[in-house]
Amino acid sequence: MDVRAQVSMVFHLDKCIGCHTCSVACKNIWTDRRGAEYMWWNNVETKPGTGYPTKWEDQDIYKGGWEKNGNSVSLKGAGKLKGLKNIFHNPHMPVLEDYYHPWAYKYQDLFTAPEGDDQPIGRAVSLVTGEPIDIKSGPNWDDDLSGTPDYARKDVNFKDLSPSEQEAMFQLEQMTFHYLPRICNHCLNPACVGSCPSGALYKRGEDGVVLINQDRCRAWRMCVTACPYKKSYYNWHTGKSEKCILCYPRLESGQAPACMHSCVGRIRYLGVMLYDADKIEAVASCNENELVQKQLDIYLDPNDPKVIEEARKAGVHDSTIEAAQRSPVYKFVKEWGIALPLHPEFRTIPNLFYVPPMLPAMAQVDGDGTYQTASEKMFPGIDQNRLPMKYLASLFTAGDTARVTEVYEKLMSVKLHRRNTTVGDMSDEEVKELMAKSKVNADTADAIFRLTSLATFEERFVIPPEHREESIEMLEATADAKGETGFGFKMRPERGA
Fold it and tell me: What average pLDDT does the structure give for the chain?
């Protein structure tokens, strides 16, 4: 057992209001500069929809992530041989138009235009070329446009739905949408790290954050192809790749990442989880129907004495173990089992988990064509969700509808229990039946409600001390043993030595 610590996140989609405050906070801090205009390390997509960049989920186009080869995995569109073949022309690389062409408005023309009969306007000007452009798309172009032919109907997650099921989805009375915020997943098996020819990408040992060494980056851009979530970007001005760094300078000072700190809906949770690094290869190469369960199994119980012992042997600090014991992410993912990874079939073992949204029920039509909008029960059953379970399973469980249904049954149990507790107008039999089926007792339901609805800042963000001083001491000790400086250069002998 090789116990390591990983900073992980949970996004509660039932609480996201799509305000994009998280995106703007990140943009203002990290990507508000030349060459990064099109970058959104944090973006909020509307689902159903094609996302950003367009159709990023379709790996038939972009060849991102890993694919199973016997008892191991290999990169789909990158790697030594594949990368060498595409070194001068990569057909799987997203182009600027797949993101959007960044622009600004030339407002100065409103004041400097000569007098005339026409009304002067501030034309859109490209931030890349400086030339006037016609705006065709933007970073959140499909925001709230769920159901439109250009976006929702091209969502690749509809692939498992029959034509009749898809058509039913797009009847006006039945349509729905939800938001999907995305940042880098800081995966346990990151394809970006495995694809980099220059070794510029690496995973920090103390917290698992994936970073890019700007000094070593040589602009091969294999990381852009390899990341199936398209969260590695190329800066055309500096000639370097960039990505979400999980605001590690803030983490090191005990602060929450900017996107999480600014979240209006308070949908974001951050904590540390302990995992067994010896299982990574087995998890990444397992059968597709086992991916979700195998990934959940890799995370260890931080209260288990054996795990604590092995963690200490591996150098995990006691303060990190204590933070893992209080982690809200562990509760959502392992203890309660209501948070799922996004597209586990990419086999990167992502560390960002989502609590699915409680979607509205779908109106029913009888034989006479009359809409039946009333329900026999106060809360309609899960089988009446407007988004089919097949769609949600394509997002979160590699097609396993049973696991998605299991999560929804738990969420519905909490909903019925809290309604019955606060109002008391529910049928006791109905509540007890669903809670027994979902294996959620009253105490668990109250705990889920507490962390979901009433959690304090300290409960939502349990940030482990980074202990960077120990990492620095280790590097210095290693350098001294080799007769080097902390930068890897040989020390000159003193005069007279």
Answer: 88
